Amino acid sequence: MPDATLSLIVLGAAVALFVWNRLPAAVVAVLTTLALAATGVLTEQQALAGFGDPVVVFIASLFVLSDGLEASGVTAWAGRQLLAHAGVGRTRVLVGLMGLGAVLAALVTPNGAAAAGLPVLVLVARRAGLAASRLAIPLASAASAGALLTLSGSPVNVIVADALQEATGRTFGFFEFAALGVPLVLVTAAVAVLLGDRLLPDRPAAAPDDHPPAVRTVPDRLGARAAWALGVLVATIALLASGAVTAATAGLLGATAMVLTGATTAPHALRAIPWGTLVLIGGLIPLSVAIAESGAADLLADAVVGVVPEGEGRLLLVALFLLTVALGQFVSNAATVLVVTPIALSAAEAVGIAAEPVLMLVAAAGAASFLTPIATPANMIVRDAGGYRFGDYWRLGLVTTGAWLLVVVALVPVVWPLAPR
């Protein structure tokens, strides 16, 4: 059986297992790696190479940097500033909360931003007399948008930047994502402010005892090592932006500095790393390689290109956006992007457009996880605080996704021209 066919069978089985959701995602990724090796699509060395990939190392370091900011009190301090200045008006509270979520996501990933913003949300909602159900989904959505403000905002950004470097020798700059991220943060906030009251449920805020102490309490002051944590963060960003060292090296230097300066401790930093996420990404990198090298990506790209009229680059962007969003509502965004990236690159080559706009679009579509609570951990983190049911997400999420589609397809070709360099 051709390797392309075997790769597609493994891909289909992996997606089915992800959607079935009975096995941990990391276990599915490991099974995928083993299947690729067992079928001979990849050698054992190729199948296991993903676990030592620099992308995995860099992503692990980002979680240690995030932990340093949280452990030193920086994120809690940011939350207190919102509490002090947000007031009690719905629009002001909502914009302030979403702004906080977006900024934190750029620094500590969307999941960290949702977790850090949750205690602030509960306190602000109670003080302003607002239903937490009208605030929690917007917080998670803003965190997803804020991830597109910096390279380190999400593992997805790292994945597409690495793919661009492998495909072209170029890469995305640290703040280059912000050219798309800032408009998406603004449109996400606008949708929530204008339509949130109509599309989100109005349920009584949960009683204080329904939340653990960490959710009910926001520390009053910065940790003793907050200045060190901020200094390490700035230095790491400077290294990443300068390109003096690789992203993985810069991340490791920053993570090590967080521990050496006392912003966090080694045991605490190790606990902060979501090892399941790293196994998921490391296990699916070989699948991405197999799809690209076996010719499976070309087959899938031909199917995508087949529905797009010749020369219509923007319609290809629409098709890739919809494909990525549809898969991303049931499969983790990192897994989705790893699967879609080789397909997108093959499709771009087939229609003669550059890699940059296609990969930036895939990153944005991968972040558009608004329709289900299982689309991203950030959605799950806010679920209990908002008292949400499964079907509560899609109403506002569908409008937000539509707005993102319009912004992304209109803006991406302007910032990253479709014509190949």
Automatic annotation (TrEMBL):
Stated family: Belongs to the CitM (TC 2.A.11) transporter family.
Membrane topology: Multi-pass membrane protein
Chief subcellular location: membrane
TM region(s), chain numbering: 93-115, 135-160, 172-195, 227-260, 272-292, 315-345, 357-376, 396-419
Keyword vocabulary terms for this entry: Cell membrane, Membrane, Repeat, Transmembrane, Transmembrane helix, Transport
InterPro entries recorded: Arsenical_pump_ArsB, Cit_transptr-like_dom, DASS-Related_Transporters
Metal-binding as UniProt keyword: no
Gene Ontology MF: a single term: arsenite transmembrane transporter activity
Citrate transporter-like domain segment(s): 16-362
Species in which this protein is naturally found: Cellulomonas pakistanensis
Top-rank taxon, per record: Bacteria
Annotated Gene Ontology cellular component terms: plasma membrane
Protein name, as recorded: Cation transporter
